[in-house]
Amino acid sequence: MAGELMGAVLSSIEGRTDISRVEEVNVTIGRLSMLGEEQLRFCWEAIIEEEPLLKGSLLVIAHEEGRVRCRSCGFEGPIDMTEDPLLHPMLPVFACPKCSCGVDITSGRSIHVNNIKALSAEGAGE
Known about the structure:
The chain has about 130 residues and is of the alpha+beta class. It has two domains: about 1-65 and about 110-125, hypothetical protein PF0899 fold, CATH 3.30.2320.50; about 65-105, no CATH class. Helix content is about 20%, strand content about 40%. The chain contains two helices and eight strands. It has a three-stranded mixed β-sheet with strand order 2-1-8, with helices on one face. The protein has a three-stranded antiparallel β-sheet with strand order 4-3-7, with no helix packed on it. Strands 5-6 form a two-stranded antiparallel ribbon. The longest helix has 12 residues, at about 1-15. It starts with a helix and ends in a 6-residue tail after the last strand.
């Protein structure tokens, strides 16, 4: 995932000759993406060492909570996660907090770049 983020950042600044380097990359990680923040930071720091435009850049992470829509009662809101002892303990079971029926996840699974803070070739922030 760190490689995909790096690719997205480089793609967004491709052709921008006025950028000398990226200082900060702000991303949002959905809590249901099951992506570990510390692992992402570690991988980011390792892979950017070979990319001059990104070397030393800071990865700033925000989180997005999970939200659901109930298939039965129509509830829309925050997710209720429980562990089912019959399933693997790391596999969450998503249930409607109102009626305990099955739900569809409406947010909290995505990972996206919010913005990039870069220095111009003259040294001023962009």
